[in-house]
Amino acid sequence: TFGTQTDYRDGEAQTDPYSPEYVVPSGSVPELLMLASLTWGRGLPAGLAEVEIIERAREKRAWEATLPPMDSASNIAKRRKMMDEMERKEWAFREQEIEKLQEIRLEVFKKLLQRREEKQNELDGKRLDDHWQNHQKAEEEKIKKIQHDFALMLRKLIAKRKNMMGKLERRDIIKEYTNFASQTYAPLSRIGYFPDNHSERYVVKNFYLNTFAGLCELEASLPDSVTQVKIKAPKPKHTTAKTGYVKRSARLEVELALVHQ
């Protein structure tokens, strides 16, 4: 699996490949030394671009081998012409490389601009959502205030309509308490009183009292002194003294018992 490290996997401890020392014989130019600028991680292992560079270097060395010697004026002119043509080819190749780099940079810039535009669109959308939510909250609060003011004005108009003739009526408390249909006993919900609203939350629901399992658990938690009552018999009082006479307190208790009977 992903978390298993086997004996055949050494990627976690792999170092750069070893490059041994070398000695170049005199009079020889190994082709491998042309790749000394390439190191592991920077050109190695070789990709398509590195292979093209190697092929161009080979072509250039082969072209240098075909140059005429500089022993006469005609050979010098021919050599200069060939070098001018190679220089033009090199400049054309470099222009192509520059165009490729510019295209790659343009693609990178396009991706960056597209990513920045997406982030900006997300921020704009979030801001619009927040603004819309705030607007909705303000509108709901405004509607609640209008409804509250409407109910208040409506109650004022109802109270004013009751007193159309200008006669002020005092509150008759006795009449209210004698009439079981009055606001005292049966208040209306339209005046802001809800007697049965969420009344079930006031009901006591106890697991130990409403279920048989709760009663068994409650009984098991009680100590033995509660369920098993131990009554100790009273010890008889000694009514006679050591000398054989009846104690005065015993005679007094007998007299009180007679009086009680």
UniProtKB/TrEMBL annotation:
Tell me the compartments it is located in: Cytoplasm, Cytoskeleton, Cilium axoneme
Entry protein name: Cilia- and flagella-associated protein 91
Q: Mind listing the UniProt keywords for this protein, alphabetically?
A: Cell projection, Cytoplasm, Cytoskeleton
Q: Where is the stretch described as Disordered?
A: 1-20
Q: Encoded by which gene?
A: Maats1
InterPro entries given in the database record: CFAP91 (IPR026720), CFAP91_dom (IPR032840)
Q: To which species is this protein native?
A: Odontophorus gujanensis (marbled wood quail)
The record places domain CFAP91 at: 4-156
Query: In which family does this protein belong, per the annotation?
Result: Belongs to the CFAP91 family.
* The keyword Thylakoid appears for this protein: no
Q: Predominant location of this chain?
A: cytoplasm
Pfam assignment, any one: CFAP91
Identify the PANTHER family for this entry: CILIA- AND FLAGELLA-ASSOCIATED PROTEIN 91 (PTHR22455:SF10)
User: Would you tell me the Gene Ontology cellular component terms?
Assistant: axoneme
